[in-house]
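ok so for the tutorial part 2 we go from a plain amino acid sequence to predicted structure tokens. step 1 is just haveing the sequence, like this:
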Amino acid sequence: MSDDIKTTDKNEKSKNSTGNSGLLMMWIGFFIMLAGLIVLAFPFIQGYIGSGRQADAVISFDEEAQARNAVSDEVDEYLSEGGKTAASDENSGSTDEHGATTNDSEANDASDADHSAALSTDNDGSINSGASAAGSEGSDSAEGNSTADASSSSSEITIPVRTDKTSDPLYQAALAYNNEIYDNKQAALSSLDVVESFPLDTRDYGFSDNVFGKISIPAMGVELAIYLGASDSNMANGACVFGQTSLPLGEDNENSSICGHRGWSGTPMFRDIQMVDIGDYVYITNPWEKLTYQVYDIVIVTPTDSSWCQIREGKTIITLMTCHPYEQNYQRYIVFAELAGRETLDAAAQESSETDSEAVSSKSESERSDVKEVRQVNADGTTETVLVDSTSIQPDGNEYGAVWSNFIILAEDKMRLIMYALSALVAAVFIYLIVKTVRSKGNKKKQ
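step 2 — the prediction. this is what the tokens look like for a chain of 447 residues:
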């Protein structure tokens, strides 16, 4: 009898041990599936973060550029009380004996002088507004009252005002740089290695990041911040101006060479550059203006060919560059666009509030085709015409040749359903294991 009881106890212990081992293995399997889910989800998380970072860079530039140029509420309030600032006139003027800023035509106008303020312009595009000058004896009572009100505050406040861009130190530095590389014929552009750095940093002029503007390409459906210098970190965050090429100011003798990855970590960037056609528009917003460029040529070159980023005498152009073909990247795809229009930031902001989108092209939709002819310049200098598919690219994992990058690109388009299915499976297994574990502990207590 005792032998039977011992045998039964032994069987129960063996069963419990087997059950515990099985439960442990299921937990281990669960964590393996969870790790797989994290690996699958990472490209989507990275793409989401990357897209958010790129969007934040554009928003940050917009806000800082508008603040650099816009008349503040304080100026509006000051003007409503009878004050005048340089922002109310197109040209800044001279300073009278009271420190009041007026233009030349107002210097002898007693009535306007009664309303002028003691203003001094700072390097960052701001003005310091102190007490206004006292009104002249010949002014009427209303003018006298407004002058007295404006004079009542002796505290000095800093007010950003819209100024002529040529007085902006950043514009002066950018123009000097453009003139320098034009005069020396881009002598430092001896190799493409120098394009990663840039001799000018917008952070030295009040911007939070080394961003000079933003680029919008409606045909591709992208909007990216424009960083200075094609370093790895800048390339990961947006489009970049090559070092030793022009800054996009919209002046003569400019070729601003702007590059972008052909897709990066779940974000499209310049992946669909083949969708851009001759006649399409590219929009660049710098700290002062929105410039409109129109595409006039497209060419495919070798990676060692740098002729496309050379300045053309008397031309105002940009060149967009990315790798080509998409799956092999042994060539470079270049889009040339020439300046076609410009508008100040306040006018551009007003227009964008009235229209939903920017014009894509001067061509009608019926004139566009899924395949176009593109000129290709070979390594030996010969040229030929090749056909390029103009439709949107579906990522297939062969973009960079690196395993992790390929996986990210592949996961972006083809693993979403797998990730969702695995998520549901992991959730179901987790619930099952929790129930199983609770029951197992309950059985142990009973025993």
